[in-house]
Design a protein that fits this description.
By secondary structure, the chain is of the alpha/beta class. It folds into two domains: about 170 residues, Rossmann fold, CATH 3.40.50.300; about 120 residues, no CATH class. The chain is built from 13 helices and five strands. It has a five-stranded parallel beta sheet. Helix 4 links the parallel strand 2 and strand 3. Helix 1 crosses helix 2. The longest helix has 19 residues. Zinc ion binds next to helix 3. The site of zinc ion has 9 residues, from helix 3.
Length: about 300
């Protein structure tokens, strides 16, 4: 089986997310045709596969084949109706004004647990086409849903997605190719426009350049350097906190942002590179642990030690 570079990148991302056990909704964003759909499919396979290989769907079991054919009993796809259509609230929940041609609503799919495996997956395509009452309805599901439910959302217009939805999701930028022109700030904030506001001041742009130069050497570092890298990451957080955080912001918030930026950088250099994949998995795990109040230094010590094997 031959895999084009684009597909291998999709598989790498999917495996990192699934292996990190991240149950948070994943929002796949990128220009139209940037590969959101193939990443969504690979991620759905990773969640539903009967015998995943290294976090990736095997591609051969009955679950993977059903995902490929879009007829898996534990997979539900929500998408706009008709050309240039919208996603109405009726696609998500039973409403009084149901039309004859309205699809079977998502809430009914989620009423009972998985039929085949351990998870049920909902893919919502073209999130930017959600009508506003539908967006608010979906938000309620993102906030509270059964533990076996996995949401995969895709969009080609991240700016049109409600900030309340974006903040609930792990945002993954698809189809990005680093180029000579891309600035440090662009690389750090790719897929996370709300972070870009932080870099208006000169000193923050200088931080971005220094931080990117530092982060670029991580995949080549060896395990003995794990403790040094962890210490340095902590210092980068302190520095970024000092120059960018509004008064009263908890240090934890800044640390989460720095981890997010680091994950963003690493996900851009994913390819066949095993180290970067492992690092991304660990960063996702660390981000989840730090959000959940774990002690930052011990989390990042472990993150580097395990990814630089
Ligand atoms: Zn499989």
């Amino acid at each position: 089986m031959s895999i084009s570079s684009k597909d291998s990148e999709a598989v790498a991302l999917a495996s990192a997310i699934a292996k990190a056990g991240v149950a948070v909704p994943v929002l796949l964003a990128g220009a139209q045709g940037a590969g959101q759909n193939s990443v969504a499919r690979e991620l759905a396979k990773a969640y539903l596969c009967r015998s995943p290989i290294n976090g990736v769907g095997c591609g051969e079991c009955s679950s993977c084949l059903s995902v490929e054919r879009s007829n898996h009993a534990d997979l539900f796809v929500v998408e706009p109706q008709g050309d240039g259509g919208f996603i109405r609230k009726a696609a998500l929940v039973m409403t009084k004004d149901r039309r004859k041609d309205d699809p079977f609503p998502m809430s009914e799919f989620l009423r009972v647990g998985p039929l085949v495996g351990n998870a049920k997956v909902v893919i919502v395509r073209h999130m930017e086409r959600l009508q506003s009452d539908a967006a608010n309805t979906l938000l309620r599901f993102l906030e509270e849903h059964p533990a076996w439910c996995r949401f995969i959302l895709t969009t080609s217009a991240l700016g049109h997605i409600l900030p309340t939805i974006r903040s609930r999701c792990l945002i993954v930028a698809c189809g990005y190719r680093p180029s000579e022109e891309s600035t440090a700030v662009a690389r750090l904030t790719r897929g996370a426009p709300e972070l870009a506001d932080q870099f208006e001041e000169e000193r923050c742009r200088t931080f971005a350049e220094d931080f990117v130069a530092w982060a670029d050497q991580i995949p080549r570092a060896g395990r003995p350097e794990a403790v040094r890298l962890s210490d340095e990451l902590s210092q980068w957080c302190d520095r970024f906190h000092e120059i960018s955080a509004p008064p009263g912001t908890p240090l934890r918030t800044t640390r989460c942002k720095v981890l997010e930026m680091l994950g963003n950088l690493v996900s851009q250099s994913l390819g066949s590179d095993e180290r970067s994949r492992r690092l991304l998995e660990r960063i996702l795990e660390a981000h989840r642990a730090v959000t959940g109040n774990a002690q930052f230094e011990s989390v990042t010590d472990l993150m580097f030690a395990e990814s630089l094997r």
